């Protein structure tokens, strides 16, 4: 399974050719979105029309939420690494959601997640 991070979904929503080609090469049943990524995308909307368009675009994706064990690991990561590695609150939860599912996280922000040693990161395509 592959979970898509916010930066990858922004490229997809903006219809970047490299993102779309990569996305089409992945079987749909192996892809998903952390629910927190969906919330980040909605947070970036400037108005209700934009929010509706994004929500409609995201409907085909399976959404995954952190469970209790994911949250416990995220809290431990956040407490241990927020100061030393600048691990963000949402990043710790997104990372541990992927870890809990045994999924890779497709992202270009590997630096944000470097403190989460169990996370498998995938750089999905080359950015021009």
Describe this structure in words.
The chain has 128 residues and is α/β, with parallel strands linked by helices. The chain has a single domain, classed as 5'-nuclease (Rossmann fold, 3-Layer(aba) Sandwich). It is 52% helix and 12% strand. It contains 7 helices and 5 strands. It has a 5-stranded parallel beta sheet. Helix 7 links the parallel strand 4 and strand 5. The chain is globular, with a radius of gyration of 14 Å. The model has no long low-confidence stretch (mean pLDDT 96).
Can you lay out the helices and strands and say which pair or pack?
Elements: E1 2-4, H1 6-13, H2 17-24, E2 31-34, H3 35-43, H4 48-58, E3 62-64, H5 68-81, H6 89-101, E4 104-106, H7 110-113, E5 120-122
Parallel strand pairs: 1-2, 1-4, 2-3, 4-5
* Rg from Cα: 14 Å
Based on secondary structure, the structural category is alpha/beta
Largest beta sheet: what is the strand line-up? Answer: 3-2-1-4-5
What's the helix-strand series? EHHEHHEHHEHE
End-to-end separation: 26 Å
Shape: globular
Named CATH topology:
Rossmann fold
CATH architecture label: 3-Layer(aba) Sandwich
The helix fraction, in percent, is 40-55%
Tell me about the biggest sheet? 5 strands, parallel
What is the CATH class designation? Answer: Alpha Beta
**CATH homologous superfamily classification:** 5'-nuclease
Count of DSSP E strands? 5
Average of per-residue pLDDT values: 96
């Amino acid at each position: 399974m592959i979970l898509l991070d916010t930066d990858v979904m922004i490229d997809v929503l903006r219809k970047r050719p490299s993102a779309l080609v990569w996305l089409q090469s992945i079987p749909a049943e192996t892809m998903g979105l952390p629910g927190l990524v969906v919330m980040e995308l909605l947070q970036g909307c400037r108005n209700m029309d934009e929010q509706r368009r994004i929500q409609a675009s995201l409907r085909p994706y399976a959404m995954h939420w952190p469970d209790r064990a994911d949250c416990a690991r995220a809290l431990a990561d956040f407490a241990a690494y927020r100061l030393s590695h600048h691990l963000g609150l949402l990043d710790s939860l997104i990372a541990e959601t992927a870890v809990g599912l045994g999924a890779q996280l497709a992202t270009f922000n590997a630096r944000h997640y470097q403190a989460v040693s169990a996370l498998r990161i995938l750089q999905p395509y080359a950015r021009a």
